[in-house]
Amino acid sequence: MAKSKIALIGGGQIGGNLALIAAQKELGDIVIFDIPNAEGMVKGKALDITQLLPHGGYDSAITGTSDYKDISGSDVVIITAGIPRKPGMNREDLLGINLKIITDVANNVKKYASNAFVIVVSNPLDAIVYAFYKISGFSKNMVVGMAGALDSSRFRAFIAMELGVSFQDVQCMVLGGHGDTMVPIIRSATVGGVPITDLIDADRLEEIVNRTRFAGGEIVKLFGNGSAFYAPAQSAIEMAESYIKDKKRVIPSASLCEGEFGIDGYFIGVPTVIGSGGIERIIEFPLTDDENTSLQKTLGAVQKTVAETNL
Ligand code: A3D
Q1: How much is the average pLDDT of 21-48?
Q2: 1 pLDDT above the threshold of 80
Q3: How far apart are CA 159 and CA 87, in angstroms?
Q4: From CA 229, how far away is CA 237, in angstroms rounded?
Q5: pLDDT attached to residue 56
Q6: Any idea which fold 5-145 has?
Q7: Measuring CA to CA, how many Å separate 291 from each of 185, 204, 286?
Q8: Three-state secondary-structure class, residue 54
């Protein structure tokens, strides 16, 4: 089987970790693209990661570049190009500059990797993935935003920490926009198959949900000069792997809804089946009145940011 080619657009904090994890999972050959000012950095990261490959017996070709031609024919493109948050900023504050950047990125990805499955990570996520979709003209099954995978992983981690159980055995999903209005579906959360609502009382669960909502901000505050990157990178790689290996995993992802959950024309976090066809299906299920109200609230926030893109 031919090796997959993975292009990482943006080789900063998340980009570097995407390359590391993709190499350790042997997902394919990796090209890390960044702007000319950062060419040395991505060439250096590519070399550094290449030099750890012998330890694990991993085989991947990893290169750094500032020439878009090098992403030609990529099977997967993961976009982290843009600026991250600093303390005191919300994700929407990044729209102006990251919209300019995604415009350039989308035109080049269209030119050089028009058949790729594209995972957008840059913030504000729900608007930037929308912008990529509109500018590139890619089909809706080949464009997705990474957010729910991270938000759900954060929720799972906090529950596992609370109960002192394996992280692996906690299941739950967080839907909606990637922001403070995200919608954790508490009733679907389980620990080893046992409903979480039987294990943690409602007040404590509310605290955990709130920590999940602001988990990104908690890290921004601790870092002081950037935002989370390890867990975001792992989350995007889970999505890329499901596409490359046709695993058909069900991952909460920002997918284009066309009627699902009563949402039309917006990318928003919904349970999504990712396989070799890209976004193969959105899994729709009945929401409670409260969940529906929360989803409408998050939709309002997404619509407001998308409107500012003028696309
Ligand atoms: P950072 O380490 O600054 O890396 C961003 C990289 O993008 C830098 O190396 C830049 O040189 C590069 N870049 C800038 N302009 C361009 C361009 N025109 N073309 C190509 N590359 C360019 O940031 P990071 O890796 O920490 O974060 C990247 C993005 O992900 C930010 O927008 C974050 O807000 C976002 N983010 C999203 C999540 C989600 O869950 C959605 C989580 C964490 C971070």
Answers
A1: 98
A2: no
A3: 26
A4: 12
A5: 93
A6: Rossmann fold (3.40.50)
A7: 7, 19, 9
A8: helix
pLDDT of residue 145: 98
How close is the Cα of 242 to the center of ligand 1, in Å?
23
Annotated catalytic residue 55? no
- Residues lining ligand 1, CB < 6 A? 9-15, 34-35, 38, 80-85, 94, 98, 101, 104-105, 121-123, 125, 146-147, 150, 178, 226-229, 232
- Neighbour count for residue 37 (Cβ, 10 Å): 8
Q: Give the mutation target among 68, 89, 98, 121 for probing the ligand 1 site: most ligand atoms within 8 A of CB.
A: 121
Q: Looking at domain 148-307, which CATH architecture does it have?
A: Alpha-Beta Complex (3.90)
What are the structural domain ranges in the chain?
5-145, 148-307
Distance CA 174, CA 34 (A): 31
pTM over 0.85: yes
Q: Which pair of structure tokens corresponds to residue 144?
A: 């997705």
